């Protein structure tokens, strides 16, 4: 069974919180919340910035890091376009959720995000679009 998990940046301090997502508003604000998963503890709700909420894809990268919607991944699986149709080395993509699937997209191409037995052995998370947007502008990532 796939693990259902979300993350979002806390409205209070911008730190990341992981847990279950709820569209209910917190503390009479316009912010939805994430309820952290804690075994045997009283659940707290944290107001999160809606635009930063992303779902776990069910995959981990080659280092065992969970891959979330909004992550920036580097992969050799599809290569980098160097000419009309030639490819080589690494390229970077953003993880996007579309109804019923996660995709990898950049300004040139898009692919379905797939991994072998839940392991994204071809992918490495190098950042995310909220904390590291500059990574999307780099062409020298190798």
How would you explain this protein's 3D organization?
By secondary structure, the protein is mostly beta strands. It is 0% helix and 43% strand. It is built from no helices and 14 strands. Strands 1, 2, 3, 4, 5, 6 and 13 form a seven-stranded mixed beta sheet that branches. A five-stranded antiparallel beta sheet has the order 12-11-10-7-14, with no helix packed on it. The protein has a two-stranded antiparallel ribbon with strand order 8-9. It is globular. The termini are far apart. The mean pLDDT is 79.
Topology, please?
Layout: E1 6-9, E2 16-22, E3 33-36, E4 46-47, E5 54-61, E6 66-68, E7 71-75, E8 80-81, E9 87-88, E10 91-98, E11 101-105, E12 110-112, E13 119-120, E14 123-128
Parallel strand pairs: 5-13
Antiparallel strand pairs: 1-2, 1-5, 2-3, 3-4, 5-6, 7-10, 7-14, 8-9, 10-11, 11-12
**Total beta-strand segments:** 14
Bin the helical content. under 10%
> What structural category characterises the helix and strand content?
mainly beta
How big a fraction of the residues is strand? 35-45%
Number of DSSP helical runs: 0
Sum up the overall morphology in one term.
Answer: globular
Give average pLDDT, whole number: 79
Element order, helices and strands? EEEEEEEEEEEEEE
Q: Would you identify the regions where 5 or more consecutive residues have pLDDT less than 50?
A: none
Main sheet record:
7 strands, mixed
The first-to-last residue Cα distance is 34 Å
Instruction: From the alpha carbons, calculate the radius of gyration and give it in angstroms.
Output: 17 Å
């Amino acid at each position: 069974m796939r693990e259902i998990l979300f993350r979002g940046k806390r409205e209070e301090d911008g730190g990341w919180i992981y847990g279950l997502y709820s569209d209910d508003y917190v503390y009479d604000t316009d912010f939805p919340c994430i309820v952290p998963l804690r075994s045997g503890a009283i659940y707290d709700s944290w107001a999160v910035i809606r635009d930063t909420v992303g779902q776990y894809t069910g995959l981990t990268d080659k280092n065992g890091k969970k891959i979330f919607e909004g992550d920036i991944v580097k992969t050799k699986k599809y290569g980098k376009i160097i000419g009309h149709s030639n490819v080589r080395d690494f390229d970077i993509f953003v993880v996007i959720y579309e109804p019923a699937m996660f995709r990898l997209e950049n300004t040139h191409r898009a692919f379905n995000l797939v991994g072998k037995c839940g392991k994204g052995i071809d992918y490495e998370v190098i950042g995310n679009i909220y904390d590291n947007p500059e990574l999307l502008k780099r062409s020298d990532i190798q």
